[in-house]
């Protein structure tokens, strides 16, 4: 009887810990679509850290998950932060009128002579000259095939679920941080 009680107690404790982790600390997410290739692929399973932004600020280039609407969550890369002026000129990202390297795009950029990311300014998309407080500008890494802030505008920081910390499936693509 003592052995059964010990096993039951251990199982209940494990379930409680799993519930706390899943509810408050981490979320599992399945990538749906090609907008983040080659960083993330359709069907990848991700672990999203839901509490990291309680202790630190969202940084440019973080890969985040956010509520796009009531039914869908999107995974995108943070490009612009509050106060930033964002533009794309000659296929080069400009933040506050300075060129910003995007090394995570190097493996995706085709050598086909075509523009990888079409030119835009924040003002042409949102009517704002700078990203307002409490908002982010996000883009997918697959710039030719991504539904992102160029299409739907700015993302409220309140919509952010968390930061993608781990890709855990498939095992051949396990990776920490992006």
Please summarize what this structure is:
This protein has 178 residues and is of the alpha+beta class. The chain contains four helices and twelve strands, in the order αββαββββββαβαβββ. It has a single domain, classed as Umud Fragment, subunit A, CATH 2.10.109.10.
Overview of the structural elements:
The chain has 178 residues and is an alpha+beta fold. It has a single domain, classed as Umud Fragment, subunit A (Ribbon), CATH 2.10.109. The chain starts with a helix and ends with a strand. The model has no long low-confidence stretch (mean pLDDT 86). Pfam families: Peptidase_S26 (PF10502). One of its GO terms (molecular function) is signal peptidase activity.
């Amino acid at each position: 009887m003592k052995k059964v009680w010990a096993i039951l107690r251990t199982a209940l404790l494990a379930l409680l810990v799993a519930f706390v982790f899943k509810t408050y600390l981490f979320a599992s997410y399945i990538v749906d679509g090609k907008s983040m290739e080659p960083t993330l692929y359709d069907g990848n399973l991700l672990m999203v850290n839901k509490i990291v932004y309680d202790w630190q600020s969202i940084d440019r280039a973080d890969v985040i998950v956010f509520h796009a609407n009531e039914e869908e969550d999107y995974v995108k890369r943070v490009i612009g932060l509050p106060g930033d002026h964002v533009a794309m000129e000659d296929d080069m990202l400009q933040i506050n009128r300075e060129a910003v390297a995007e090394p995570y795009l190097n493996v995706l950029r085709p050598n086909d002579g075509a523009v990888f990311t079409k030119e835009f300014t924040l003002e042409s998309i949102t009517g704002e000259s700078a990203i307002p407080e409490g908002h982010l500008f996000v883009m997918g890494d697959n710039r030719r095939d991504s539904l992102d802030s160029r299409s739907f505008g700015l993302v409220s920081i309140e919509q952010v679920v968390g930061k993608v910390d781990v890709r855990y499936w498939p095992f051949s693509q396990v990776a920490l941080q992006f």
